[in-house]
## 1
Amino acid sequence: MIRLIQLATLSALAICCMVLAILSRDPLIYSRQSWALLALAIAILFTIALALRRQWIWAACFLLCAGISLNNEWQYQRQKARVLATSPDQLRPLGQRLIVGYRDPQMIEALVERQAIGGVFITAKNVRDHSPKEFRQWIDHLQSIQASNHLPPLWIACDQEGGPVDRLSPPLPKGPALSSFINTDGHYDAATINDWGHTQAQQLRSLGVNMNFSPVVDVPPPDSGSTTSNPLDRLSQISTRAISADPMLVGEVAAHYSLGLRTGAVLPVAKHFPGLGKVDTDTHQFPAHLDTSLAEWQKSDALPFAMLGQLGEHAPAVMIAHANFDAIDADTPSSVSQPVIALAREILGPDARLITDDINMVPTYYRKGGPGKSTQDALAAGADWVLISYMGETYYQVMDYLLSHSIK
């Protein structure tokens, strides 16, 4: 019985170590990378202990776990070294189309100095240990480096929608959801919404932010409620963030809010084209499909985007989602699909500025060729920027791929 317990314990440990070793440089456990380090330490210790007891098969299993983890780290360090050894002249045309999140500020400073990125994504983890003044000084420092390289200002981007998604609160005040500006009878005050957009822009500018991934213009079904009980939608939960189930109302409110942001010198980014309101699977963690017919889509999901496109030079940029749009390109995530991105420009106008959702999400990170190939395809399809936000270190993998495949 004791031997069976020992065997079961070793088996469970070996499986856990193997999984963590394989995922040691993976977005799925990025927020728990200490687990991967623990697994590596356990693997090394058990390899030694089991070898001393001449249990060679088990020792080999744990040695394999340690080897996989160390190989992943070695591959990452090689990619990073190759990128940092590349001249700014080669990095610049590619890097200016990438907006990158971070955990280590020194990583971002090094990339800005090498002209290797076009923007920085900031979120709660980046601001929590700094006063607003300190953080703004650091952003100003990055912008001064960018200016010294004779490049346009960096895009400093964030998710500050209001309501349930306010990633910079604190230190900024928590803002209202755009849906809260609509009365129960469907009426709203345009000036109030516009003023809120302008006020929020001033708050964001106090931190150096000039791009906000808001408004959410996805149109949920009229009968949609909270999605918190949906096991396939743990993070997106669009129905809790949507403005309304009425596409005309969504477009109107989003337009007034966007114009307010623009008057405050912040570029709004409407999301998520072609629409996630009727997608019940979370693209952070799963492949997903928008299976609405094209005719229905044109009357519903497309309408807010078309209305925003009519703002012309004052129109927001637009974020392209990772859900496959079955009516247009069922086999490819929208963010890397040439037909879907062409449709976005048809709806929004040829001068629309388009950015992908985070390339670390499952549909693009685990696609054949990985995040590098997904970035290549997104840029080739017509996206202006690719977002690498949740795990900023993916930048090195992406840039190494782009450089080795001569992407211009």
## 2
Amino acid sequence: MRAGYRYGFILLTILGNLAASFSQCKPAINLIQTGELFTNPAFGIGVSIKKDRLDRPYVYLSNKSAGLKIYNVSNESNPLLVATVLPSEYGNLDAIQVIQEGPYLYLTLGDIWNTNQQAGLAILDVANPLQVKVLDYYIHPGSSGGAGSVYIKDGIAYLAAMRNGLIVLDVQDKSNILFKSQVKFSNTFPHEDSSNVAAFNARGIWVKDSIAYICYDRGGLRLVAISDPLHAKQIGQYCYEPLIDKATAYNSICIYNNYAFLSLDYYGMEILDISDPSHLKQVSWWHPPTWADTTNNFQIWANSRGHANELIYDSSCHKIYMACGRTDIAVLDVEDPSHPITCLEFGSDSDDYGTWGIDFYKQKAYASYIWSPFFPPYSNYTGFRIVDVKGCQATDTKYFNKEKLIQDFQIHTEDDYIQINFKEEIQKVLVSLYNVDGKKLQIQTFQNKQQVKIPFQFNQGIYWLVLQAGSQQEVIKFFHR
């Protein structure tokens, strides 16, 4: 095993097998590394990473048994550790995934690589990242193993809790987390052999409308109706046919419009049309030729040149950024979901660096590297890298138009609506509202209007208004306090 400490700055790194198809990515993009920090795994193993969503110069990195670490990255070439929140503050459980909602962090708890710990969730106040407050934490009684990820919607936390299935929590009062319900999944789908209990885990989760989509590892994708959080229940299941009775690992998911993007570990990424949740349809599958084919041979799977895990959608340029183990980051153009195109691979698949987590914010990608020398994704280093994305700035895309549609717009906080005043009466305009992660919050169509009002009852954060009038399109980015 190599020494696990490395720290430094690299101006430009674009490595890997750049196949001819990469040039088809439009607009063409480049990845420029601007900073990195690697530490000794004895001081914590990086798992999940999140750039601060309030535009402050901080990165949050979950470090398993070493807790949550906060870095100041105002100088990206020299990240500085400024705060640590230790597991002793939330039940002595490992820190796994970190996500942010306004001034709050949600931290999933419990070791996901064995069953020595229970599953839980902590809520942290980062109004001042230098003085973090743990507001509350919840540990699920009788659970076996930790929680892989969480999705927050309308004051409810949907916890993908590995072998414990889906745990639904009320987090409206950040200082008083309340249990609502739990859904445990059957392991009989989709394989004849369901004896390997350790391979069935609720890992990734995304919520759209009234359905939670859960990556259940060897158990494929599970759909859970959550319209009544007290009585959540499974309503569907899916697995890509070539994986049936083979090594299967549905790891992570993100959803944009009516498409779900699912990482399948060694078997790449799958895109599903979820417009009709009762009839899921695969529209495409992405799998580099150097990655392993379907197999039940552990060595073949383990030695794949890539292992797809966390992924995130950039709605401004229709790109997927995906943490891929030893193929550090894959960037895919998915503007046409039926034909995903590999734009770039960042990092070398022949070194000892392997990613687990990924974040994307304001044309920068943040990748977390896990220390895992004995099990895929093999990696002898832990820490994170920051990468500038060049060539896909919002002003370069079709989402902006020189001829403006809007005269002005106003946020009426007291009355919970946004008022948009157009320069002239618009025959027909489609107005969509997105959050900073590219999640569509609402969409409305107006006809023959010069002034429109749309409901707005959302938390503090950055939002995008996209207006489409015929071939003309305009985007407004704003910060809501």
## 3
Amino acid sequence: MGYPKKEAAGPDPQAPLFLLLGYSQSFYLPKRPRVADNAHMPNMSTNSANHGIPLSQPNISKLEEEMVLEVLRSGRLSIGPMQERFEELVAQRCGTTHAIACSSGTSGLHMILIALGIGPGDEVITTPFSFIASSNAILYVGATPVFVDICPTSLNAHPGKIEQAITPRTKAILAVEAFGNPRHMDTYAKIAAKNEIPLIEDSCEALGTVYRGQRAGAFGRAGVFGFYPNKQITTGEGGMIVTNDDRLADTCRSLRNQGRAVTGKGSVAAGSGAGSWLHHDRLGFNYRMSEINAAIGVAQMMRLDELIQGRNDAADLYIERLLDIPELILPTVDDDCTIMSWFVFVVRLAAGYTREERDRVIAGLRIHDIGAGDYFPCIHLQPIYQRALGLPEGSFPIAESVSQRTLALPFYAGITKQDVDIVAQTLELMVSRENLSRRN
């Protein structure tokens, strides 16, 4: 929008809005009890009627409770039938031969990189606009993340930039479906095949998405889902690797279980001493998922279509309510995405707004008991990556411009139209306040 930079620090986010904006004393925002100090965190699981409007909350039914009780009563709390059932449900949904449950999406990425033999001296091309775990996993194995700028509409890595970044040291492309958007995944797969390198699909934000007939997680050599409480489904904590590669699957099953030898879906291999619980073939980790977590996952997978529809309904409410606000850029979904599985609902302030203005809008929403977040800060500008790679600000101008203006709004299956209206009304007022301060 080309607004000039302003000199003042901006108005106090606690200033009375009805006075700043010229409303009468009769104007008011609906009052709610105060939210907790961590209302901006994505694991808010409290009831919005009692604690404001959280940024996210899991959708837990009686079925999840019953499945957990079934495990508790069974006495089998780890490495049991519930994990296998959960794996089968995810593999069926993704159309893959294997699914390997693990402790988190991060641990899944770590194991895939190890299983592919990626290590020191290798490069992995990825996006700077993601949750930091996607790049951390590359550092875990001693490889170097090679960032490329993003597409300004999908917010995923720009395919042309990926092709330009490939060198003899490139050993994989680690692509992320930002906020659940699958655009370009088929193109990444073609680039990877052309250059004979594996595509690792970070689908932690995209369970259930279908793009051009292909299900999220199945575009590359392996995909990973995450089940943190703000995701489409949750297990509390947890993740899942999906793949059609038999050898990679068995390696990851071994890695998650302290390096024990495995056959099939995770049983300890028999013969030559490998049948012993204390026999270890490789350096492994405790990246297992408990039966209790898996039980929640089974119930959530049984309800996946319902949960995805609830999130689509929430997205439709926001789009209808926010579409005509010129200061906002709404998320876009490619027509070829036949099922969009929304992770979060992230809007952007229009070009010309600053990070400081965005941050004041977020602060204003939180003050009015509405959860909000700055999804995502650019990874290459995080302190640890400044020390590790030293990439200066301006290295990825599109990602940086987007990052300083993004704003995550409360989003979950079951959010009410009333709450969406309150969020939208408050957001409009906060943006109007910033516009007003520019004229002063």
